[in-house]
Amino acid sequence: MTRRPAILVVDDEPRSVEVIARVLEEEFDVFTAPGAEEARRILEHEWIQVIFCDQRMPKTSGVALLTEVRERWPDILRIIVTGYTEPDDMISAINEAGIYQFITKPWHPDQLLLAARNAAHLFHLQREHERLSLEMRLSLPAAEARIAARRAEVAQSFHFDALVRAPGSPLSEACLKAAQVATFDVPVLVAGETGTGKELLARAIHYSSLRSEKPFFAVNCGAIPDELLESELFGHKKGSFTGAHVTRIGLLDQADGGTILLDEIGDVSPAFQVKLLRFLQEGEIRPVGSNEAKRVNVRVIAATHRDLHGEVGRGRFREDLYYRLCAMVLTLPPLRERRADIPVLAQSLLDALAAQHGKKARGFTEEALACMQAYDWPGNVRELQNEVTRMLVLARAELLSADLLSPHVVRDAAAATRADRDVAAAIAVPDTGPLKDRVERMEATILMETLVRCRWNKSRAAEELGLSRVGLRAKLDRYGIARGGAFAKSH
Ligand SMILES: Nc1ncnc2c1ncn2[C@@H]1O[C@H](COP(=O)(O)OP(=O)(O)OP(=O)(O)O)[C@@H](O)[C@H]1O
User: Fold this and answer.
1) Which domain holds residue 450?
2) ipTM surpasses 0.85
3) Could you identify the atom of ligand 1 that is nearest to the CA of residue 201?
4) CATH number for the domain harbouring residue 80
5) DSSP annotation of 161
6) Which residues lie below 8 Å from residue 441, measured CB to CB, with a gap of 6+?
7) 74 and 202: one domain?
8) Test site for ligand 1: of 164, 196, 220, most ligand atoms within 8 A of the Cβ
9) Residue range 459-481: average pLDDT?
10) Which tens digits make up the pLDDT trace of 297-320?
11) Closest residue (by CA) to atom 15 of ligand 1?
12) How many angstroms separate the CA atoms of 383 and 121, rounded?
């Protein structure tokens, strides 16, 4: 089964993206990005064939982005959507970015569709040409060896090593479990805050599994209304609803033999949970508007930033679906719980970004690293990635200094460092003195360390220490421990 051609639409105007996507998605798989950064992420992970890019965007111009696309992904057909048609602009854009076609605003839907069809067709011809010349130049075994090497290369970039971490990181534990479960054909639930690498881990599982030569698709279930999600996953028949101009093959069908990542599964409506459950129980899909069921063999990996088990308890997620999805639960810890990973991750992200942008950068100053390690990173690796990009863009020297960090990162890191320093000063255990005093001081030390680690969330600290909240409170009162207050043992 072949996939529909994939198109990426880049525009900072949500309304324009929506309108263009609506025109194209009957015939194409449409990905959208509000700017260059998200566009790069999609281009790195998806096999995009045509890109529609708005010329005027706040951070990067369409031509600049398409010039980069030309360098990194030369096969992709580049179309620019522009409000103005100065001949000089056009000529320089064609030269710089190798633009395949200009579409001027206001455009007509037919014009847009025609451009997309022609570009996708040309893309297909180029690939076919490439394949035939490769076959002519190489004997078949050699070509097969090349293909196998390329496959191995792809698998490598989505291997567990792609999850950069320091030796002994808590992330290694999740990777180890994931590697063990990869070859068992069972559903996996990946839990973790946003940006912790859930999709990266899901890809690594797929590429380490026996399904690695078959497709892997990721669907963000949280971002799509029920009807669209149903059509996206199960497909639809032509004419089954207003606007269904062509028959669409669902991703579960396209992924037959492979793996699908159902991202943000905790956001799926109760009605859709029933549809998913039926699919998981029966292994069959029925496209919207069709009476025929089709058997497919797809491994499901689900991901969520929610406490899905808790959602079951609260009656928001079906228990039967939960148990269908989680033969194995893998939890990715947030960056603030594995601070030792931050320097290696930052360096690895910097190396990749510097190579990508052709800018020299050696690393970070100690002060910058200290700030990064003290900051909490609520957006996890994705936020770190953005911060490193910002630093690289602003850098004037090869060693990136703390003043390049966003002001809120420096501010929050300084506050956290101050608090930790106060705690460290307060909890030093004396080398001499009566045993009882030293044991109590030690107990206070453990309480303080746990509270700092749990960011003063007393319920979490109590749970970790195996105490009730009341028990913890009594001990804190006894030792005079309070947030921001000095250690004042009360005896
Ligand atoms: N350990 C890691 N090493 C290198 N890159 C990482 C790591 N973890 C995450 N990333 C990168 O961070 C970005 C976010 O990762 P990913 O999309 O997998 O996170 P996620 O948990 O699925 O996020 P969301 O819940 O928001 O979808 C990606 O660009 C990914 O490549």
Assistant:
1) 427-479
2) yes
3) 18
4) 3.40.50.2300
5) G
6) 427, 429, 430, 489
7) no
8) 196
9) 88
10) 999 999 999 999 999 999 999 999
11) 197
12) 38
